[in-house]
Amino acid sequence: MPLVSVVMPVHDSAATLGAAIRSVLVQTHTDLELLATDDASSDASMDLLMEFARQDERVLPRAAPERGGAGRARNLAMERARGDYVAFLDSDDMWLPEKLERQIAFAATANAPLTFTSYYKVDAEYNGEGTDFIPNGRVVQAREHVDYGAMLVQDHIGALTAMYDRNVLGTRLMPEMPKRQDYALWLSIMRDGAPARGLPEPLAVYRSGRAGSLSSNKLSLVPYNWALYREHERLPVHRSARALAGAAWHSLRKSRI
């Protein structure tokens, strides 16, 4: 079986961290390593990580030398990755038990080194978990195929569902940006000519409206998107403005659903 390196940034998330970790450890695809980076938490997150590590050797936590944000925490984890695939899960989200098994099978036939899935969107207070739970939330449907042009207008890939093939792409780190690092990574992979394909089955659970979540304030994304277009993608002003307008329209439309 292929080894999957699961990348998890952690910061002051002791309240939800246990559910996130357990959703990884109960995967039906068992050949995995959970690479968690504690980003200078002030709560019991690191203690919880160490307790899970004592119980399961697949949990491999490490503390960041200093607070660097989610992107840097993910990169520190990816630098340790040994897997054939790299998958992503934040410390307040969850996977359904068959997520990796189904996505690996899909990736083997999709002819794309970057894959993603549909996912459930639930309230921040959602506390369901286990090997047989069925979330009661809205499904964010994955597109069948996403190319670079479509991604410029809207990030169609839920980071909690993304997985890339290290055997094809090598280890691809996120750029050192304050926010939107995951979006920038997907763009860089597709800009290099690699397609992305989506599995329509919802296989992850995203907690929406959580405290401190950037996505809870759509207006705050504007300067980060602009910096992404201009500084990372090096798009001309007119194309950046067109992409930003499209992104704003899609965000407004999604907020009304």
Give me some keywords for this one:
single chain, 257 residues, globular, Spore Coat Polysaccharide Biosynthesis Protein SpsA, Chain A, alpha/beta, 10-stranded mixed beta sheet
Describe this protein's structure.
- The chain has 257 residues and is of the alpha/beta class.
- It folds into two domains: 4-214, Alpha-Beta Complex (Spore Coat Polysaccharide Biosynthesis Protein SpsA, Chain A), CATH 3.90.550.10; 217-257.
- It contains nine helices and ten strands.
- It has helices at residues 14-25, 45-55, 69-78, 99-110, 148-153, 166-169, 181-191, 221-232, 237-255, and strands spanning 4-10, 32-38, 59-63, 85-88, 94-95, 114-123, 138-140, 145-146, 163-165, 196-208.
- Strands 1, 2, 3, 4, 5, 6, 7, 8, 9 and 10 form a ten-stranded mixed sheet that branches.
- Helix 2 links the parallel strand 2 and strand 3.
- Helix 1 runs parallel beside helix 2 and helix 8 packs antiparallel against helix 9 (237-255).
- The longest helix has 19 residues, at 237-255.
- The N and C termini lie far apart (39 Å).
What's the gist of this structure?
With about 260 residues, this protein is α/β, with parallel strands linked by helices.
Q: Shape, please?
A: globular
Major β-sheet, in short?
10 strands, mixed
Architecture of the largest domain in CATH? Answer: Alpha-Beta Complex
Number of strands: 10
% residues in beta strands: 15-25%
| Number of discrete helical segments | 9
Measured distance between first and last alpha carbons: 39 Å
Helix vs. strand class: alpha/beta
How many discrete domains? 2
Looking at the structure, the CATH topology of the largest domain is Spore Coat Polysaccharide Biosynthesis Protein SpsA, Chain A
What are the low-pLDDT stretches, counting only 5+ consecutive residues below 50? 212-216
Q: Please write the CATH class name of the largest domain.
A: Alpha Beta
Mean of all residue-level pLDDT scores: 88
Question: Would you identify the CATH H-level superfamily of the largest domain?
Answer: Spore Coat Polysaccharide Biosynthesis Protein SpsA, Chain A
Following the backbone from N to C, one meets helices and strands in this order, namely EHEHEHEEHEEEHEHHEHH
**Cα-atom radius of gyration:** 17 Å
What share of residues is helical? 25-40%
